[in-house]
Specification:
The protein is of the alpha+beta class and 252 residues long. Helix content is 38%, strand content 12%. The protein has 11 helices and 5 strands.
């Protein structure tokens, strides 16, 4: 309990407020904590470039744990992520760039890339994973006997927490610290957005993307043109589900 309390204090110290009304000060902390629980706490992970990977930890779906339909999924491991709804994660990240300008336009790229060609979006945002691009540089940092174990692990996408757990579980003999090895792995990886269709579509979720843009431009007003360049790396979500058109042969 003491460790949990200390962690909460550390996380919310970023916006600690001191006024003549202590209740207001605590409200600010609690409000900030609520944003972190739904949207996640953004970590900047070194990847060897000027723009580090942004990785949200502690995120979870909103609501009560005992409600089965909320389907909480919290990773029991390092750098834990959870699943959340598109709207909830989106609206609770609107102030990310204010507290940590190093986040840049990450949230814009993520949520814009989850818009489908028909304008809808998947309900569930799962967090991010990584896929290795170059494995050979990493193999030189472990004993030869562990090469096959790492080759098998990097066959699929991974998270930093899963990589650490694999190192511990398979007793991988590293020639450096775990933290340094994870950083090296990220330098040779690409970040992937994970999402799922979930239970259906909503019509207003795209509006929160505009809030992300406004927040970003309030910090970086000089980067508006750059943000809209066609050369930016935006994608669209290829959903397994779609809304049937209102006009069908049966209606004619």
């Amino acid at each position: 309990m003491e460790e949990a309390k200390a962690l909460i204090e550390e996380l919310t110290d970023e916006m600690a407020t001191r006024t003549s009304i202590p209740l207001f000060d605590e409200y600010c902390r609690q409000n900030y904590l609520d944003n972190l629980l739904r949207g996640g706490y953004p970590l900047l992970l070194d990847n060897g470039t000027e723009q580090p990977f942004v990785y949200h930890v502690f995120s979870r779906k909103h609501g009560d744990l005992e409600r089965d339909y909320n389907f909480f999924k919290l990773q029991a491991g390092y750098y834990s992520q959870g699943n959340g709804n598109f709207r909830d994660a989106n609206q609770n990240r609107r102030n990310d760039v204010w507290f940590n300008p190093g986040i840049g336009d990450f949230n814009i790229r993520l949520f814009m890339s989850l818009i489908q060609p028909d304008g809808y979006n998947p309900l569930v945002v799962k967090g991010c994973s990584f896929q290795i691009r170059e494995l050979e540089p990493l193999l030189g940092q472990v004993e030869v006997a562990d090469h096959s174990s790492l080759r098998a692990f990097f066959q699929s996408s991974f998270t930093p927490g899963e990589l650490i757990q694999h190192i511990i579980h398979d007793n991988i003999a590293l020639k450096q610290t775990v933290e340094t090895f994870v950083t090296e792995a990220l330098k040779h990886s690409e970040q992937c957005y994970e999402a799922d269709f979930g239970e259906g579509f909503w019509i207003d979720h795209w509006t929160y993307n505009m809030d992300l843009i406004e927040s970003y431009l309030s910090i970086y007003p000089d980067k508006q043109e750059e943000l809209l360049l066609a050369t930016r790396e935006y994608m669209y979500y290829d959903s397994p589900a779609w809304v049937q058109p209102r006009r069908t042969n049966a209606c004619r």
